[in-house]
Amino acid sequence: MSSITRDEVAHLARLARLQLPEDELEHYAGQLDAILHAVARVTEVAGEDVPPTSHPLPLVNVTRPDETHRSLTAEEALSGAPAAEDSRFRVPRILGEEA
C-alpha cells in the first residue's frame, strides 16, 4: 500500500499549479512513494555517530594568504586613460542621464 495517496498527489499538483489527468495521479503516487522509501532508507543508515556533511571528501582551502602590496596612485592609474576629470576616468554619457 502506498503511503502517498491519490488525493495528496492531487493536492501537491494544485500547489505546484500543475494540471494532471486523473489517470496520472495514481502513477505519480507510486513514484513519490518509491522516492520517500528511498529517502527513509538513507535516514536509517545515517546513525548518531555520523556527522552531517556536504561533501564526501575533506575540502582544503587552496587560496593564497592575503598580502598587502603597493597599489597605483590616482595619477598612475589615470596616466594611460584617454580622458580624465577630477581625478576620475571620463567616459561618455549614456542613457541621456542628467548631470
Structure explained in plain terms:
- This protein has helices at residues 6-15, 22-45, 74-78, and strands spanning 84-85, 88-89.
- The protein has 99 residues and is mainly alpha-helical.
- The chain has a domain at 6-45: Histone, subunit A (Orthogonal Bundle).
- A two-stranded antiparallel ribbon has the order 1-2.
- α1 crosses α2.
- The longest helix has 24 residues, at 22-45.
- The protein starts with 5 loop residues before the first helix and ends in a 10-residue tail after the last strand.
Secondary-structure blueprint:
Blueprint: H1 6-15, H2 22-45, H3 74-78, E1 84-85, E2 88-89
Antiparallel strand pairs: 1-2
Helix pairs in contact: 1-2
Main sheet overview: 2 strands, antiparallel
The third-level CATH topology of the domain at 6-45 is Histone, subunit A
What's the CATH architecture name of the domain at 6-45?
Orthogonal Bundle
Q: What string gives the helices and strands in order?
A: HHHEE
Radius of gyration: 30 Å
CATH class of the domain at 6-45: Mainly Alpha
- Give the tally of β-strands: 2
Question: Mean pLDDT, rounded to whole units?
Answer: 87
Strand order of the largest sheet: 1-2
**3D shape:** elongated
Helix percentage: 25-40%
